[in-house]
């Protein structure tokens, strides 16, 4: 297709494959072309011209509109109260009329803070962290802050690298279930950046922490299984570097008090890892399996079903965390409920107080609750 008729502004262009390129003001514009079917048509195409992108409104535009200086507009944006009320209102009206949106980065630079909280999690695919992030975000929003989330993929080395990235942009840092070595945590704590850790305790290290009572949760599961008559129990371990896994193992080391023999098997924290570990669980001779979390338990349950193993008739199975899917599996999972939303609220509020300069933040442990369902049964 050759040259097209001039546009209303006198610009011409060339159309190919249903699109038209029109040069202008240093930008390229793609224009929809509808080709005329009749050969006698005087025009070869009907052009539908895309409107130009609106020019970005600047602080200088606001100043002109309000009849004020750029410095005055800047003071209004930053909440400085030395601007006369009438002039300040004129500036705010001009911003509203022009649709001006100040640069968050520029404001942060002017105030010496970014208004951002950095949150690092080991696995965003795990719903355990979704509720925590949601609660922290709500607390941050109420305080006028935003949340920047990063995922380390269960890699301690990547975790340290991402933490350094977050420290460049965030006023405060929340590390959810960090896997990094003690030395790395100590180095971060020494930086002076407001920081809070969830689900990790490091004795002798000055870290603000909010943790879940994983120990008591495992003890509750042990007591439940013992009352059902089980004596040989298999624990499918979670991530090697997870403090939550260490706490589970610490609790299980005292399972003899319930008359239980506990076998442990490395596994992981995902459904796929639970699925892969199910055959070994059967070979262990255990009459009950405690999975690291509900995700793992659901993977085990799926594989058991494929193998024709009935839960709980042939073997009992428990999870941990109480994710939504635990109630809807077949059979529904016996598990331990962790109040993740509450954990996020506490962590978000505590980090906010740390960022405000408070130093009276006490460590806190969030309680858990046993939820008995149909995946565990009496030993026949």
Automatic annotation (TrEMBL):
The protein's matches in InterPro entries, at most eight in alphabetical order, are given as: HTH_LacI, LacI/GalR-like_sensor, Lambda_DNA-bd_dom_sf, Peripla_BP_I
Q: Which Gene3D superfamilies match?
A: 3.40.50.2300, lambda repressor-like DNA-binding domains (1.10.260.40)
Taxonomically, the superkingdom here is Bacteria
- Keyword terms: DNA-binding, Transcription, Transcription regulation
GO MF assignments: DNA-binding transcription factor activity; transcription cis-regulatory region binding
All copies of the HTH lacI-type domain together span 57-111
Q: SMART domains, per this entry?
A: HTH_LACI (SM00354)
* Name of a matching Pfam family: Peripla_BP_3
Q: What is this protein called?
A: Putative LacI family transcriptional regulator
